[in-house]
Amino acid sequence: MIEIYDTTLRDGTQGEGISFSLNDKLKITKKLDNLGVHYIEGGWSGSNPKDTLFFKKVGSVKLNRAVVTAFGSTRRANVSAEEDTSMKSILDSGADVATIFGKSWDFHVMEVLKTTLENNLEMIRDSIRFLRSNGLRVIYDAEHFFDGFKKNADYAMQTVEAAQSAGAETIVLCDTNGGTMPFEVSNIVEEVKKRTTVPLGIHAHNDGGTAVANSMMAVKSGVVQVQGTINGYGERCGNADLCTIIPNLKIKLNLDCIADSQLKNLTRVSRYVSELANLVPRNDQPYVGKSAFTHKGGAHVDAVLKNADSYEHTNPESVGNSRRLLISELAGKRNILSKAKEHGVDLSLAKTKEILNTVKSLENDGYQFEGAEGSFVLLLKRALGEDNPLFDAESFEVVIKKDHKGITANATVELELDGKRVIASSMGDGPVDALNRALKDVLTPIYPELKLIRLTDYKVRVLDAKSGTAAKVRVLIDSSDGKKTWSTVGVSTNIIEASWNAILDALEYGSV
Question: Is CATH 3.30.160 correct for 391-446?
């Protein structure tokens, strides 16, 4: 059994731009417990009001498996453990398990703590003994251990031995600066394991891009606890990403850590934490990213449809993700056929070739369908003569006015609707909003379901910057009716026209 120790709520919040509310932290705690992690580091009790309040609130949260731990440091150099504020805060947290860190690198002892090497050993022993005497279990984080070991192995080992003798139940070797290489981690863990009797853990940072690899090598070399964060959030370049480590342990090494049923929640948990952190999920994140099992090249799609093992290292459903096949100028006939089948459209070989050529021609003009599936479905239906447009768009006009009151936008649209010419105008926060409002003013009395559709995101990409203001732009619009979401695309040398085309597709697709 490999223990999973999550520090998203403490180390993860040290990442730039990340700040969880108290309610966020309690919600994430429940999600992590459902995922099956063994330990959840709740924060540094006493360091700030939010973390202090978290420990008061989390006691009433029913957890199935996870144990919430309180984080802190060893006592200060010239204060007894009984009088140290960090020690008191840990006791006041009400946690049953304390995780404290201490210095393993002689350089840090002398240059940062400004104390003697022997006093640092006493600080480690005193702190652990004090917490143990008050009934707490103690996990000891040996900060900067790998750097310390490489510079002065004898002293680094003395700090670990001090923690062991004082009663730490697990000693976690930390690559705090994140610059240790995987082969170094393996060698050092094996050496430490020979000289200790307590279980070992690993806490890796990603400054050298090796945090996950270092964690895996540590496990192969004998550690039984892996610390990390959801999505690898953390200070500087982040921590070891548990969303990669957990499936690596389960699927690649066949080691028990969480249940198979819990592993299927991994993608959902990853995206949930991203949402609360207000950070865009990484599409290329292993296992849980949107692109992790996405195929674009025609040869790849053809092979995957014959046998998924040809271009997938594991089953996407095992981690709660799914396979995606993209439509682009790199697509082959199998991409088109597969995507059409996904939407219940049957294509002949001749029609498939025709649609493929259309896609490639449009993408040459600047369109991109891999992120605009709504527009692609409409392209399919139009090619088959199966589309049923709500209206014919005749013209539009947008007037932007700036005065001492600010900027206003007014849009007028002219449509042919049920054989009648209809004109409507509407004000909006900007030209796109005004166009959308004007269209809905005309359409919703006849198609009330369109009231539910709202634009949720709007992106503009300049396609040829060298052309200056005459450059083509691509507009991608995300829409939702509260139940489903879809994306549509428009391209033009005029940003308003590109937006208009994307809005028209959004409304037509949403009415299907």
Answer: yes
